[in-house]
Amino acid sequence: MCYNSTNVWLLSIAGALIALHLNLSQQLGRSDLFGCALLFWVTVSFLIWQKRDRLFLKSDAFSSFAGTAILALLLYKSTHLFDGDFFLRLYPLIALFGWGLLASGIKGLKQYRSEMFLLGFLAIPWEGIYVFDLSLLTAKFSTFVLWILGFEVTRNGVWIVLPSGSIEVYNGCSGLRTMVQLLGLSWIVLAIAIADWKQKILLPIAAILIGFTVNGVRVALMAVLVSLEDLDRFNYWHVGNGSLIFSVIAVLFFALIGTRLMSISWGNLE
C-alpha cells in the first residue's frame, strides 16, 4: 500500500471515527462499553494494519457516495444520543462498513469480513443475556465451594444459607457479564492467532467456564462476609472495586489457560 494523500485521508477518517466513539462512550458514562470497545478497536486496527500491503484500496463513485452518506448519518446521530442509547453498540460496525465503502468499494468489503465479525460482537444486545437465568446454578456451585472449604452451609433454592446469615443469588450476580466479557476476549484471540477447529471450540468454552467459576467463588466469599455481618466488605466485593478485582482475576486465568490451549507464539502474530 503506497501512502498517497487518499490513504492519509482514510487513516485520518478512521482515527477520527474511533476517537469519536470512545469519547461518546466515556461522556455518556458507558465505562463497560468504553473498555470493551477500546480493546476491540485496537484489535481491528491491528488486523487491518497487518494486511495493509495486501488491501485493495480503490472505490467507485457509487460506493464512495454511499460510504460518505453512511458516515454523515453516523455523525448526525452521534450528536443526538441519549443515556443508554443502543446506537453506541452499533456505531463501530456501521463506521467500519461506511469506511470500507470509501476505502475499497462494495467489491472490496470482503477484505474486512473478520473485522466486521469482531465489531459485530459489540452490536449484540448483551443486556438481554439475563433472559438466561443462571442464578440457581450459581447458588449450587457457590454452596459446593463453601462445603468443600468446610463451612456448614445449606441451600434453599437460590438462597445460600450459613448458620449466621444468608444471601440470595440474583441473576445479575450469576456471572453472565463476566462470561460475556471473556467470550469477547476469546473472539479477539481467535482473530489474531492461528487456531485449528478444536481450539476454536475449546477457547470460547473455556472463557464461559472460567467466568462462571470465578464469579461463583466471589458469591461464596460474599456469603461468608454476610454471615460475619461485615457489610462494608460485602459491599466492596459486591458493587465496589472488589468486583473489578475478580474480573481481573478471571482475565488472568483466561490468559493462562487460553495460552495453553492456543499454544500462542509471537511467530503466530507476525
Would you mind describing this structure in some detail?
The structure is a single chain. This protein has a three-stranded antiparallel sheet with strand order 1-2-3, with helices on one face. The protein folds into two domains: 5-124, no CATH class; 130-269, no CATH class. The chain is built from ten helices and three strands. It has helices at 5-27, 31-50, 61-78, 87-108, 113-123, 135-148, 176-192, 197-227, 231-238, 241-262; strands at 154-156, 159-162, 165-168. By secondary structure, it is mainly α. 69% of the residues lie in helices and 4% in strands. Strand 2 and strand 3 (165-168) form a beta hairpin.
Task: List the keywords.
270 residues, mainly alpha, three-stranded antiparallel sheet
Main sheet overview: 3 strands, antiparallel
| Amount of beta strand | under 5%
Number of helices: 10
Anisotropy-based shape? elongated
Helical percentage: 55-70%
Order of helices and strands: HHHHHHEEEHHHH
